[in-house]
Design brief:
Elements lengths: L2 E5 L4 E8 L14 E5 L1 H11 L4 E7 L1 H14 L3 E5 L5 E8 L5 E5 L7 H11 L7 E6 L10 H11 L3 E5 L2 H10 L1 E4 L3 H8 L6 H13 L3 E7 L5 E4 L4 E4 L12 H14 L4 H15 L10 H7 L6 E2 L1
Parallel strand pairs: 1-4, 1-8, 2-6, 4-5, 8-9, 9-10, 10-11
Antiparallel strand pairs: 2-3, 6-7, 11-12, 12-13, 13-14
Length: about 300
């Protein structure tokens, strides 16, 4: 199995709870709070570990919340390189409104990273001479990190002979595509923002993904579309899968679980179609876990036979 390294330049403690109704100017009495290790690449590493693989999580940590984040990952047995920083690791907050089932997510910007701190994360992520690896970068950029952080990471990965996989958005994604990566995983809104097009149907979405591939930005585009399912696109192949009929408990980490399943399968030498299938099962399973509970292996195994994929 290929080495998997995940990079989360803006990790978090994810706090989640539930309240009967969300309304202004009154005290909202919440249920018990749940705390999970969070941040895109952190979640990918957690999923790979649960599926029986090995992923090294690279992340900056600082303050009391940083110490808690390390403890939570240690409790799950996830290997890590925790880069110490002066600032305090952020917290994110999710509240489910019981009366409607709506999910409200509050995401903080994160601590300011110095040049030394974000550069240390770059240096830890790619180690030339260690053999081919899969480098997965996912999540937002904190203050202080350059807009081309993921471009630099992709360039380092290419120089080392590694495959870079990105789940980032906005200017960070646009910059990284100039370097070229193996796979990107935008959701529909992120692809719309990147292309400036409405992308109202599958032909338009397929054309947009193929245009990115033709420009050399990525070899593979994995497009997640919520309850509309997902598309997996290469230069000469494409697969479509509908969403499984699931009533979500929490949507937090579903995209990360999807990517974690795909990365685990690719690292094990499986083909893209099989990786897509596992990713869909993992993303669907995550919807059934509270907070940032991600996918549970037993649920993944139960849902895997229900995934339907067709060539388009």
């Amino acid at each position: 199995m290929q080495t998997i390294v995940t990079v989360t330049i803006n990790p978090a403690i994810d706090v989640s709870t539930a309240v009967e109704r969300i309304e202004p100017s009154v005290k909202l009495r919440c249920g018990p709070a749940r705390r999970d290790a969070g941040g895109g690449g952190v979640n990918v590493a957690r999923v790979v570990h649960r599926l029986g693989g090995a992923a090294l999580a690279v992340l900056p940590v600082g303050g009391l919340t940083g110490r808690l984040l390390v403890q939570l990952l240690e409790a799950e047995g996830v290997p890590m390189i925790a880069v110490p920083i002066a600032g305090e690791t952020r917290e994110d907050f999710t509240a489910v409104e019981r009366s409607t089932g709506r999910e409200y997510r509050f995401v903080l910007e994160g601590p300011h990273l110095s040049w030394t701190e974000w550069q240390a994360c770059l240096d830890a992520a790619v180690q030339p001479g260690d053999g081919p690896a899969i480098i997965v970068a996912s999540g937002s950029l904190p203050p202080g990190a350059p807009a081309d952080f993921h471009l630099r990471l992709a360039a380092n990965a290419r120089a080392a002979g590694d495959r870079a996989i990105l789940d980032v958005s906005g200017p960070a994604l646009a910059a990284a595509l100039r370097q070229g990566v193996y796979l990107i995983k935008p959701n529909l809104r992120e692809l719309q923002d990147l292309t400036g097009a409405a992308l109202d149907d599958d032909p338009a979405r397929l054309a947009a993904a193929r245009a990115l591939i033709a420009d050399g930005g990525a070899q593979v585009v994995a497009l997640t579309m919520g309850d509309q399912g997902a598309l997996l696109v290469t230069a000469d192949q494409a697969w479509r899968a509908p969403a499984l009929p699931i009533t979500p408990v929490s949507s937090v980490g579903a995209g990360d679980s999807f990517l974690g399943g795909m990365v685990h399968a690719l690292a094990a030498g499986q083909g893209l179609e099989d990786a897509f299938r596992l990713g869909l099962a993992c993303g669907s399973a995550a919807l059934l876990s509270p907070g940032t509970g991600l996918c549970e292996p037993d649920t993944v195994r139960r849902l895997l036979p229900q995934v339907r994929i067709e060539s388009v």
